[in-house]
Amino acid sequence: MTDLKSTPFASSSMDRRTVLQAAAVGAVGITPALRAAVYAAGSDAPEKTEVKIGFIPLTDCASVVMASVLGIDKKYGVKIIPTKEASWAGVRDKLVTGELDFAHVLYGLIYGVHLGVGGAKKTWQY
């Protein structure tokens, strides 16, 4: 096994503490640049103030319903409008046509929408 201190690339001043201090200084310098990049048009306000979220009334939809009931959405400047749907196909169709902004759905439903299962293939505009 080779001793790392004896290699020509290793310096006696490059110990663990020095590397961590250099990384911390670099992270502090990058943070303001990242903050400026994530704001849309110089604001951290949400793009939409009201969002419609579709769900099927099963026990796992509780996170969406309770976020609306408890007012957790208002903390972030958004109003959640929960929309109870009758079937997964109904949720899929409303997502594709834009009637719903978000939905609490089965994992495979989104892949099916992208592949065109149950309707025309959907391409999302970002």
Word description of this protein:
By secondary structure, the protein is of the alpha/beta class. The chain folds into 2 domains: 4-38; 50-115. Helix content is 40%, strand content 12%. The protein is built from 4 helices and 3 strands, in the order H-E-H-E-H-E-H. The protein has a 3-stranded parallel β-sheet with strand order 2-1-3, sandwiched between helices. Helix 2 links the parallel strand 1 (50-55) and strand 2. It is elongated.
Key traits:
elongated, three-stranded parallel sheet, 126 residues, alpha/beta, 2 domains
List the helices and strands and how they pair.
Layout: H1 16-38, E1 50-55, H2 62-69, E2 79-84, H3 88-97, E3 102-104, H4 107-115
Parallel strand pairs: 1-2, 1-3
The residue fraction in helices comes out at 25-40%
Our Rg estimate from Cα atoms comes to 24 Å
Query: For the report, how would you describe the main beta sheet?
Result: 3 strands, parallel
Strand content: 5-15%
Short synopsis of the structure:
The chain has helices at residues 16-38, 62-69, 88-97, 107-115, and strands spanning 50-55, 79-84, 102-104. The protein has 126 residues and is an alpha/beta fold.
